Amino acid sequence: MLTTLLLAAAAQAAPHVSHPAAPSSQHSGTHDAHHDEHHASHAEAMRAHSGKHDMSKAHAMQCAPVTAAAVESQFDAFNAAWATRNPDTVTALFAPDAVLLATVSNTPRTTPAAIRDYFVGFLRNAPVGKIDTSTIKLGCNSAARLGTWTVTLTDPATGKVTPVKARYSFLYKYAGGKWWIDHLHSSMMPETAGK
Question: Which of 1, 15, 94, 149 could join 98 via S-S bond, C-beta 3.0 to 4.6 A?
């Protein structure tokens, strides 16, 4: 009985220990706000970087001005180069990686040397081109002229003049500050007159 009373008295005399309160939600909210602000700042920086990249890409892909008249003048320059009878002058109009599928050759010409080789022989016939029909298509740093033409050839031995009716495709590209012939395909008409 005495022991029970002593234990009860000791319990009443023991100091009360309070436990620290749990962290308030205010601190958690502040942390979340800082995190959201950092995330938004990072996203904004990524958008700015992406925008600069797109502007740089657009600048790199800037299109050179081109008109139908400018494309027509490219053929005039080609015909004038033929008139020089100089294969180097004609070859210089073609892009370094151009492809020539010529009227009187079975061999695709895909290098400047091969293109020049073709014109060494072809220019001996004093070719003169005349556009008969023409369709022009314009693009970004590219253009095409498609249709039919007559190429007049003169035999150097006999002087005989032969007009050759053919179809043509001139593809041009703009690079290095100038227009080049990127591809030329010419083939004789598959149908004879009267058919």
Answer: 94
Mean pLDDT (whole number) for 71-100: 98
CATH number of the domain where residue 150 is located: 3.10.450.50
Instruction: Report yes or no on 195 lying in a domain.
Output: no
Range of the domain at 156: 68-188
Q: Retrieve residue 171's tokens.
A: 């593809």
For the chain, how many structural domains are there in total? Answer: 1
User: The whole model's pTM is what?
Assistant: 0.69
Query: Could you tell me which residues come within 8 angstroms of residue 131 by beta carbon, excluding any fewer than 6 positions away?
Result: 75, 147, 149
Locus of tokens 């958690």: 28
Q: Do residues 131 and 149 lie in contact, with contact meaning Cβ atoms separated by under 8 Å?
A: yes
Residue type, 22: A
| HSE of 163, CA atoms in CB hemisphere, 13 A | 7
DSSP state of 170: E
Examine residue 1 and state whether it is found in any structural domain, yes or no.
no
